[in-house]
Amino acid sequence: MAIIECVPNISEGRRAEVVARIVEAVHRVPGARLLDYSSDASHNRSVLTMAGDRAPLKDAILAMFDIVLAEIDLRTHTGEHPRLGAVDVVPFVPIEDVTMEDCVALAKDTARSVAERFAVPVYLYEEASSNALRKNLEDIRRGEFEGLAAKMATPGWAPDFGPPQPHPTAGACVIGARMPLIAYNINLATDRLEVAKKIAAAIRFSSGGFRYVKAMGVTLADRGIVQVSINLTNYEKTPILRVFEAVKREAERYGVSVLESEIVGLVPSAALIDTAQTAVQLAGFKRTQVLETRLRESD
Amino acid sequence: MAIIECVPNISEGRRAEVVARIVEAVHRVPGARLLDYSSDASHNRSVLTMAGDRAPLKDAILAMFDIVLAEIDLRTHTGEHPRLGAVDVVPFVPIEDVTMEDCVALAKDTARSVAERFAVPVYLYEEASSNALRKNLEDIRRGEFEGLAAKMATPGWAPDFGPPQPHPTAGACVIGARMPLIAYNINLATDRLEVAKKIAAAIRFSSGGFRYVKAMGVTLADRGIVQVSINLTNYEKTPILRVFEAVKREAERYGVSVLESEIVGLVPSAALIDTAQTAVQLAGFKRTQVLETRLRESD
User: Fold this and answer.
1) Residue B265 in 3-state DSSP?
2) What is the ipTM of this complex?
């Protein structure tokens, strides 16, 4: 069975009862499994992690819109996190027995239904985007809800689906397909923030580093150390081990050692198995050699 | 649900119709899943890989004995592989949601039933053994079927279950519990067999190396290279990466590079995840962070 992950970001992180109603709506959709959800009050934003096949995930997103449109009004919404819509971003992520193309098709299908049923304009992003200028979420979201009406009126910013102006209370929604994100941090045995910042600059795409790395240097004040905080947006093309080794080598330039690394949240097993394979030069290895994979297949 | 792996070794690898009947008997046991089986004519031996919970695996072993006792006569059996019994060895291996203690209990329970129902003497081995002199399979099997009657008459060699003399046609059976074995080979970019042999000697337990490593140096004639062929008997205590790095370092002493490594057959995902964790100094990582694990748990 196809397993797709879907991680909708909702512009509500303060009213627990509203989040509870959204969660409940997802729970009522047969076949849509809610793996996790968390709310951040200062961001005023909640992130849900769901998994399932195509139809249940689409149903869950539509059910979520029903609640969100009734409850969230972006005209009075404040929070630290940038946002364009009440349901702000909906990425579909291929996990098992499913291709990126399947997730792109699901994103477009969901986008069309959202636009038709709720009159919310939708922008497609990442792998679902057919426009290089509208591939990155940050570019689409720039100007936020407050600048949306003006942005939509400028050439090149008509939405992929739905009306050519914002929904009055829900703004717009960004729907797409992407690889699993890995939140990966590398802690350094130093309190020198400038070292973490220099290493982050060396490895991240935006300043000349790896194509699928976003990174910044931060201080972990309570531990008296610094961290290179990383988002890996495609672990197949920019693997964990390559990033780790690059950070280690860069750190040496400043006489600094890597203390440890950490993965925040979930990681696809393929990313870890790939790390193991590279670390011991494993040749000819097949996923079906993993005992647990074989056990599940013989069910 | 508990998943235990069971890998019975049968002293029949030439008569395909007998092996087919054994396989059929296992297939008829509800809940016992046959993952794999293979026969070797020169060894005159077959190895089955089954998985399931306690009761089905025990039933499968008893069903297997029914066929084996009717079909195999060790008095006329020849083959390269040492053997003590018609059903020679039965290891139970903990895989998921089950402890080694559970597998030891299952081994003893199965051993008792085999002895009672078939009058076959049974020795317990590895983790199920309560006697340090009878822990290793090689020690128990020394003398083989032909020397068994004499061996059983010597002090210290009364079986753990069953009659104090061999079964006339089926000999004895060795039943126990152990960690998953990993068949792990490291290929060297050289044709110098003595280098592979020296490295094997350096890393294997029997000549001063790692506690849970068996190893030998062999030539891969068709590729013109040599290989350090390794059995890892406990990947938790002697991890893959540690062995790989030791081989790499030893190889450097002879000016030789590691070409690649390979895993033959199945490997528990925990062994690969552990390799990844060590390779990138991953701290505080939990198995529940693996996306697929989380997905299965929420079923």
Assistant:
1) coil
2) 0.76
